Amino acid sequence: MKNRREFLKIAGGATFLSIIGSGMAQAAQVKNVGVNLYSLREPMGLDPIGTLTQLAKIGYKVIESAPSAKGNYYGLTPKEIKQVMNDLGLILSSGHAIINANWQKSIDEAAEIGQEFLMAPMLPSKGQTVDNYKKVAETFNKMGEACKMSGVTFGFHNGVTEFEKENGQVLYDVLLDNTDAELVKMELDLGWAIVAGANPEHYFEKYAGRFPLWHIKDIKKDKNESIEFGKGKIDFVSLLKQQKKSNMKYMFVEQEHLTQPALATMRDNFNYLAKLKY
């Protein structure tokens, strides 16, 4: 998880949910599946265009980038990656970027691409205290305002530690309570939230409208590591039924821990979701 923390506008407004079936019996099926590129960090580092081409062939429609040693877009310029996405019929709707001295550059690049969301994958300062989370909230509000001025929506992607408590207060709640709901959105990593003992439905109800993005992953039954979908303990059906309540816009497959080549893993995960009905 430490490595992860360091390192979809769907055309026409299409939703992530497709209702199928007939008569009294109806089932929902996942459509327009997205993927976070941290799951493919090695192949993206070696051959970003080739890897994106393979993801498109698998059936992924929406992409979320992640930081790399070559920058936010794996050595490609905003113009170049935008063209690649257009050529492949993909949408780069979101991206993660490390909060540092180059943060304004990350905003400018996202705006140039037409990227809808820019996510911080870690806190800008350390300290598992209420005071630090209030300080972070102030920083996030400023970042949210800067992103808004460029036509980008700012947000934060959680791990496990944000759900720790100090003096009975859940630190993630402190962050939500002290950030502007219009300027700071949340990308809820469902897997790590559940590992931390949090109930996603509780957050969707208490903080309505704050969670337009999801990360979806499976977690091993005997260890807090991600695994191929369907092999772990996550109840995907129950989670997917909460899309409307969350007002979720884009959902991204993510798997940090790999047991086989990344593209094979992402193919297995895509096929699992494509067959899932709820």
From TrEMBL:
Extract the PROSITE patterns matched here: TAT (PS51318)
> Which Pfam families does UniProt cross-reference here?
AP_endonuc_2
The record's listing under InterPro entries reads: IolE/XylAMocC-like, TAT_signal, Xyl_isomerase-like_sf, Xyl_isomerase-like_TIM-brl
Q: Please state every residue range assigned to the domain named Xylose isomerase-like TIM barrel.
A: 54-274
Q: Which domain of life is it from?
A: Bacteria
Keyword Signal part of the UniProt annotation? yes
Keyword match Amino-acid biosynthesis: no
Q: State one molecular function term (GO).
A: isomerase activity
Q: Which UniProt keywords apply?
A: Isomerase, Signal
The residue range of the signal peptide is: 1-27
The name under which this protein is listed is Sugar phosphate isomerase/epimerase
Q: Which organism is it from?
A: Arcicella lustrica
